[in-house]
Records
---
Amino acid sequence: MLTPELKEFFDSAINDNQVTIFMKGTKDFPHCGFSARVVQVFNHLGVDFKDVNVMDSMDIAEGIKEYSNWPTYPQVYINQELIGGCDITCEMFESGELQEMLSK
Amino acid sequence: MTLTEIEDMIKQGITDADVKVSDPMHDGTHLSALIISPSFEGQTRVSRHRMVYAALGDAFDGPIHALQMQTLTPEEAKNRL
């Protein structure tokens, strides 16, 4: 359930960083191929990001689904907006839209 | 849950969609879907994916672990596939 405390935790992770990724594992040890792929994209671009490991707690794992209205991980936020998961991030990287968004 | 059942669920939610679900890793849980629908016209990628997620309902909490998606309008499909 999305408690007020949890919502505030998500809000601040997203508001304090240009890029926040809710993922399985961490940026150093991604725990899923899809999470690993988005980490690779941002590393390749040399863009630092905040990683939130959804495996840290069941509350985070379930809460972020409700918060974002998005049922899977990873979830990538750029400039306080959910841009999507692995497929969309990779598509936007390939088309150059991601780079453009990051330069804003 | 078979691939056809998943295709049917998506088609029930997005009635004008052309849907092909495959199992590229042959593990039954990391699935891949190509969805072509005029309903995607004018929608962002996020909203398109949400439309598919909505059609699949609770399936993500159970049988489907991951669904890779390509969501295209017929026009985009013509140019890209």
---
Amino acid sequence: MKRPKALILRGSATNCDIETANAFAYAGACSDLAHINEFLSGKKSVLDYDILAFPGGFSYGDDISAGKIFSVKLEKIAAGLEKFIKDKRPVIGICNGFQIMVKAGLLPQNKGRARTATLFTNDCGHFLAKWIKLKVNTKSPCIFTRGLPSEIELPMAHGEGKFITRDSKTLATILKNNLHVLTYADNPNGSMADIAGICCVCGTVFGLMPHPERNFFSWQHPDRKKVKEALAVGYQFFKNAVEYVR
Amino acid sequence: MELLLSKFSTLNHKQLAALDKKYGWSLNLLELEAAQRYFKKLKREPTRGELETIAQTWSEHCKHKTFSGPVKFRSGRKVKRYKNLFKETIVKATRRLNKQWCLSVFKDNAGVVEFGAGGKWALAFKAETHNHPCALEPYGGAETGVGGVVRDIMGVGLGAKPVLNTDIFCFGRLDSKMKLPKNALGARRIFDGVVEGVRDYGNRMGIPTAAGAVVFDDGYALNPLVFVGCAGIIPRDKIHKKVSPGELIVVIGGSTGRDGIHGATFSSANIAEDTSNSAVQIGHALNEKKALDVLLKARDKNLYSAVTDCGAGGFSSAIGELASECGAIVELEKAELKDTAIEPWEIWVSESQERMVFAVPPKNLKRLAEIADGENCGYCVLGRFTGDNKLRVTFKGESVVALDNAFLHGGIPNYEKNAVFLSPATCNLPPKKIKKPYHQVLKSILSHPNVCSRRSIVSQYDHEVQGGTVVKPFVGPGQNGPSDAAVIWPQAATGDMKDFSGFAAAHGINPAVGRINPYLMALYAADEAVRNLLCVGADITRTALLDNFCAGSPKDPQVMGGLVLAAEGCYAAAMGYGAPFISGKDSFYNQSTDAAGRQYPVPLTLLISAVAPVEDIRKSFSMNLKRPGNPIYLAGTARKGMGGSIYNELYPSGNNALSGLDIKDSFKLYKALLSAMRSGYVMAAHDISDGGFAAAAAEMAFGGDFGADLCPELCFAESGISETELLFGESPSRLLLEVDKKSESDFLSLVSSLQVAKAGYVNNRAELIIINARGKELVKEKNAGLLACWERDLL
């Protein structure tokens, strides 16, 4: 069977890139870990790939605000990205990747790619890393979360994860169309409507704050007694993308 | 002063001392005289840059002259002399053990041991202190401390990928009533700043900070200790470096400024009210991450033949070290600068952060430059390595330094330090009876700052980045159980998700024991570190250790006496557990002087960090109770003595005795338990340390959803032991184990000849009950109540 090509797009101080590449490779993709500079210089093109992932980390030190600098760099390859999304090739942003996508206007989906939301400093005022329970919106069109149970556990690790929309209309559109793919069972950062992850209307563009690549195998879970199956819920996110492309 | 410098070789003692004080070199008279003799021989006067280079190279920080110097130890009438204390204790154990899996010890930026199956990888481990900077500027000091130890791992061999950060802090108590001298920072300010610094740097570097400890004690109120450790994975065939003449000196990473002038020499001095904080560097994690990305790419393309980090002493130490067996020519005007007002000698000794120095064959320069450009990482070619064993540094043609390697690296004079140790009086009367019921004592122990939850700190660290933190700081269904050790599966370094090799990292530290007996402090610390590794299922027969000593001024014979005893303890522990030391560091002058001239030294503190392989990370253990009905066993013997315990701090018992530690017996016990764990008989293991048996049992209970019914009196104990000692005593070498009911008889046959006895059972009531042999309830408390005491916020 064809191994789809997954681009793990990194910048300086993106730091969840290798485990994300490992996860896609394990799920059946051919992972390419590449720096945004190679796309800005025209050496590579996003259109040569089937799946695009923005991994977590602190791209460009999260200077100015989380994901901001990386999102500005994306403007230079906006045309390629636009086509990639229009082709319904899957795009996922995890943690810092989600912050980048929101700040680039890729999510929440809107015509002019305007910034209609942000991910702001957690209500607690600092970085917070812990395992959390998430509700999966089974009515959402998201292709990455297909087949997941209605409640899952993933670790979160961020300082700026409070999802806020520009206006109530943006939030209403998300909720009405079931674009809120994941919501926190116990809101850890003050996000509107407990939102932890959102997608576009056709379900192929998806961003989330928690880390599915860190609950990929059962032995990554803090409660070791539950270890029975080797694969954990995080695997499903990556497997779904690979199968969708095939 | 310039005048004095121009007459350096003719100065008298008083003038030399004045010059040293003025320039902040922290050189002693013997060293200054050696320098005088050298320049007399050369028939010229030194430049400022040359004396600065000597001061950096001979500093306590770079040379560890106290620990590796001669010592005369007097104990009663007996006198023992050491030519080199470090070599005759800690290094001696490593040499005698001669483990084949030790690949590089004591010579590089970190110790290196074998890792995983197949001989493809190795593990590098190192711990550093950044105490002086953290006392002056906690946030910046902690950040650059993390940055520095990460660069040590980047600079070991041809460069390792960091996969774990550790952090251990010793602070003054947050509720301290101590009156601090003018300008001293309060404990709260230091605590917050250090935690934030470790968080912001470690998280941005993408390295999980997943193991550590915090000790609160007013002995650290003016001089906090901040230990930062890092472990990295390196290809087995890249653990050695070799510089060849003709290779280029290439610097990558951050640019050079006036921050951190004299960081190395300042660590050889006590902190006074007027100490300048320009000695503290300024960190920027983004630059270090870029340097790391460039380094790993260039390493895998074999573009350089040696690398080291710019740490204390800046270029002078890094280039001096790489050139120590060949020589170098350096042109300082080629350095990337962030400050135009900088003097040439300042460029040479500046400790600006995030810089790595490579030896690059000229033909590879272009490819290295391409990689650096691709990562937006700065670089410059600063000169080249030569074969004449001379260090020549110029700025636009003008000589800044021209010194011989032989003098610079071999010319340091040393003198014998006096050491004595006067043991404090110990009392081994039975602990005083108190009115407070045991369950309330237990609750107050659980909420003691040295026992209570570290969640508010740990949750600020990204302890799971790289996706390989298999045993996390908190385990169990509600993540309420404090782990004994971290287990790391370095999939992000090996790139192989089907290789399940991992390693465990743990610590032992106990300054309260050290106050009574430094020798036992070392034994206890090593024992605790090994036991912690055992609790997660690591192969303790392959434990590698790091020693980090912190003390006051080595000019005080009592400080040196404690050091000698602790170093001897390290030797005994390493030999007993077959666990070689592979690297270490020491930090002296952790001492403050107030305006009235009063001295505040830290208590002698020894941190022992330990790593051991975990063959299959999928089979590692967590400490929370797993299944009602399972028996709970106590391994080891409870011994008399409340010395150094948390109990004694809360309720002075009048008994400050410490029990001895029979390493041979303990190690035999641990090996048997490891084989029981590997056979699948054990469900959970937890070590008994701070707070004793009762605290360990409580942690296992609230770490899971179940409680326990226990009777410690039925287990092995020294005869005549009191209830207080049984419940709250902290005698070493003990663990609690939950054994799978189905395998109980197999378990017993494995440990039949050992001191392992059933203490009770896991219950399904989420309640801890401890009774005595007559059936009287000593403790009866719901998990929730115990957890509430333990979960108090520190931040």
